[in-house]
């Protein structure tokens, strides 16, 4: 019986949490499956530096050889970026992975639950998963939504990926009781795009205001839901909307033609967009993630010092 069951905090993350210092969780799927090599390793390092520059401790999360790591050292980050055998783990995969000694990058759903388990309250990513176009037939809705409906964590993101059915995703978030607020905007962001065109009910204007909402969540108690802080990519760094729409239509057709489904569809579409925009979608994606990571650090600081 050699199965390992372990959620392991790095010394730095454990120490920060014990001392009540700000910590920001980062996911690893975007590194392993969302960005091309070797740029992905650069980005992994850059995101951690941005968290530190903002006065918080980064906790990148991944599962390596059956151990769920919260906070990765340089060697582990390198493995996440370059190990081609690394799988993609949603929350439901975690127990099987830990029980069998498997390795994989964690999606928003897996990262959010491991972060919350470790006591981390703020998490930054690019764009959430959600309801896929064609959901009527595929029933494909990311497990990100389900986990956020029962995990007390604040997720800073540029909305949901624009490859999805955005209005349907917003509707599901309402049904699932997940709080959604635009950060300094009344319009839900569109991941690669500054705006998705969909309105949001709430606008928050400062990290302090976000932290106040988080404290109110705790005062009110259950259900233990997440708070989504939707932070748009700056307009001057977004992907050209006309190019986006044109290329996305082609990518969706390619996915259909090649029969791509399940976990493979999100990485497939992101990769198609990157190729068909000559890398412009990648730059917009990175601009969005950087902004989210910076804001998450500010929120984590407000949360721990307020
Ligand atoms: N944000 C990005 N790039 C990504 C993702 C988020 O900028 O690749 C990942 C997240 O890990 C998210 C996942 O949870 O895509 C959604 O995958 P799926 O649709 O299979 O649930
Ligand atoms: Mn899916």
TrEMBL record:
Binding site residues for Mn(2+): 140
Pfam families in the cross-refs: Indigoidine_A
Positions that bind substrate: 88, 108, 142-144
Cofactors named for this entry: Mn(2+)
InterPro entries: Indigdn_synthA-like (IPR022830), PsuG (IPR007342)
Catalytic activity: D-ribose 5-phosphate + uracil = psi-UMP + H2O
Keyword hit for RNA-binding: no
Cofactor note: Binds 1 Mn(2+) ion per subunit.
EC number: 4.2.1.70
Residues of the active site: 27 (proton donor), 161 (nucleophile)
Molecular function via GO: hydrolase activity, acting on glycosyl bonds
Broadest EC class assigned to this enzyme: lyase
Keyword Lyase: yes
Keyword list, A-Z: Glycosidase, Hydrolase, Lyase, Manganese, Metal-binding
Assembly with partners or alone: Homotrimer.
Functional description taken from the UniProt entry: Catalyzes the reversible cleavage of pseudouridine 5'-phosphate (PsiMP) to ribose 5-phosphate and uracil. Functions biologically in the cleavage direction, as part of a pseudouridine degradation pathway.
Family: Belongs to the pseudouridine-5'-phosphate glycosidase family.
Name assigned to this protein: Pseudouridine-5'-phosphate glycosidase
């Amino acid at each position: 019986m050699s199965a390992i069951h372990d959620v392991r905090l790095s010394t730095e993350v454990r120490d920060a949490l014990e001392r009540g210092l700000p910590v920001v969780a980062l996911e690893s799927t975007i590194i392993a499956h969302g960005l091309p090599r070797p740029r992905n390793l650069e980005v992994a390092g850059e995101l951690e530096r941005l968290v530190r520059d903002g006065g918080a401790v980064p906790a990148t999360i991944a599962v390596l050889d059956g151990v769920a790591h919260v906070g990765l050292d340089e060697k582990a980050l390198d493995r996440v970026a370059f190990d081609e055998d690394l799988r993609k783990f949603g929350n439901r995969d975690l127990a099987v992975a830990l029980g069998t000694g498997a390795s994989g990058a964690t999606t928003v759903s897996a990262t959010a639950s491991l972060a919350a388990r470790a006591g981390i309250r703020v998490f930054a990513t690019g764009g959430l998963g959600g309801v896929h176009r064609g959901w009527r037939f595929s029933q494909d809705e990311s497990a990100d939504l389900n986990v956020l409906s029962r995990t007390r964590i604040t997720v800073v993101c540029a909305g949901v990926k624009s490859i999805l059915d955005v209005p349907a995703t917003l509707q599901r978030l309402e049904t699932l009781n997940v709080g959604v607020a635009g950060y300094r905007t009344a319009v839900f962001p569109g991941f690669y795009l500054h705006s998705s065109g969909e309105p949001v009910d709430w606008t928050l204007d400062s990290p302090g205001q976000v932290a106040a909402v988080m404290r109110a969540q705790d005062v009110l108690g259950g259900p233990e839901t997440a708070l989504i802080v939707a932070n748009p990519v700056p307009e001057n760094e977004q992907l050209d909307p006309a190019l986006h729409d044109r290329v996305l239509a082609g990518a969706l057709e390619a996915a259909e033609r090649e029969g791509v489904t399940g976990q493979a569809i999100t990485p497939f579409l992101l990769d198609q967009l990157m190729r068909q925009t000559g890398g412009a979608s990648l730059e917009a994606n990175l601009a969005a993630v950087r902004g989210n990571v910076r804001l998450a650090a500010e929120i984590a600081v407000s949360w721990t010092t307020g």
